[in-house]
Design goal:
Blueprint: E1 19-24, H1 27-39, H2 44-49, E2 51-55, H3 61-69, E3 78-83, H4 92-104, E4 109-116, H5 122-126, H6 132-139, E5 144-149, H7 155-167, H8 174-184, H9 188-202, H10 210-216, H11 221-234, H12 237-248, H13 253-275, H14 280-289, H15 294-304, H16 309-327, H17 333-349
Parallel strand pairs: 1-4, 1-5, 2-3, 3-4
């Protein structure tokens, strides 16, 4: 059965693009788009025969050629998904060979080039500058579908939450959508997970409200935990003990300790990224590769700018040593936390 691939509003209209150039700043949104292309391959058996996934970092151009020029099995079209295509184009000669291959891909193949991030800086893009692969795509509108999957920010994320909830058969109040947007920041994958969880919680029988988000989304806890981190950074022992007492009223000591270790690990990773000269935006991406979502990553980066690197290393090492003592039964978590506070702020406490 023929596969009908449709063009987007940002490309010249044609029935069947051959090359799909996807720039995935929002990797989850790009993955959903690709999943939709896969769904058009037909039943599972035929789809399996006509779907191939490749990584430009792990293959040669010849491997890509063989995949792209292969004949479909029991169908009219193959779908070849190539991640990291620029890894096959290091240098002008390699770029020319890749572009030559792209022009040879037959209509019986849909070749998806999925590059993580944007090819051209948005500021340069607005000034008319284009990456060489984007320029090539613009010169071949009859066979190329080009699309940027930009991160959803602020109002865009709120709107996505409201619309996605509706698609899944539920409803979010706008305040709840706004609160969840604050929690997930620009992370569409995290947003999808939390939307589904919250709709399951209310069983789609009522609207998700802001209290539901506050209750079920643990990412909000990281904001409270930084109060203890701030007190330790400032050497304010009285404040640190007061914050710890408040936290102990609602959480088990062991959970608080693990949370503090987790928070300082994130802060230390953020500090190391900043020390390498990365901008806060670049540091968010670096932490994302370590599976730290944008929302807690931004909080960690904000905190990291307040700590000296040596102090962070020392504090994190102390936490790891205490972790070993707790797990070995030498001390309980509450005493370990009090000892940590005393050790770091003893002069202030004794004043």
């Amino acid at each position: 059965m023929p596969i009908a691939f449709q063009r987007g509003a940002d490309s010249v209209t044609t029935a069947k693009p051959v090359i799909y150039l996807l720039q995935a700043e929002d990797e989850f949104a790009a993955a959903q788009f690709i999943a939709n292309l896969e769904s058009k391959l037909g039943d599972e058996g035929v789809a399996a025969l006509n779907l191939q996934r490749l990584d430009g970092k792990a293959i040669s151009l010849e491997t890509l050629r063989e995949a792209a020029l292969a004949i479909p099995f029991f169908g009219s079209r193959r779908l070849v998904i190539l991640e990291n295509p620029l890894a096959l184009a290091n240098g002008e000669s390699a770029q020319a060979k890749l572009l030559a291959l792209l022009e040879q891909v037959p209509p019986s193949t849909a070749l998806v080039l999925m590059e993580k991030g944007l090819l051209t800086d948005p500021r340069d893009y607005e000034r008319g500058k284009r990456h060489w692969l984007e320029r090539w795509a613009e010169e071949h509108p009859e066979r190329v579908y080009a699309r940027q999957f930009r991160l959803r920010k602020g109002a865009q994320m709120v709107q996505f939450i409201l619309q996605r909830a509706k698609q899944l058969g539920g409803v979010f109040s706008r305040p709840a959508a706004e609160r969840l947007a604050e929690v997930v920041s620009e992370d569409s994958r995290l947003a999808e997970m939390e939307i589904r969880k919250l709709l399951d919680y209310v069983n789609c029988q009522r609207a998700v409200e802001i209290d539901d988000v506050d209750q079920l989304c643990p990412y909000l806890e990281s904001v409270e935990n930084f109060a203890l981190a701030n007190a330790l950074r400032e050497g304010d022992g009285r404040k640190a003990l007061r914050v710890l007492r408040q936290m102990l009223e609602e959480q088990e000591p062991m959970l608080i300790f693990f949370s503090v270790v987790h928070q300082f690990r994130q802060i230390l990773l953020a500090k190391l990224a900043l020390e390498e000269g990365q901008t806060p935006a670049e540091a968010v991406q670096t932490l994302g590769r370590l599976r730290i979502s944008p929302y807690p990553a931004r909080l960690a980066i904000e905190q990291a700018q307040k700590f000296p690197l040596d102090s962070l290393r020392y504090l994190y090492q102390r936490l790891l040593e205490m972790d070993v003592s707790i797990k070995g039964g030498e001390v309980d978590a509450e005493v370990a936390l009090e000892t940590l506070i005393a050790g770091l702020t003893l002069p202030q406490i004794s004043d």
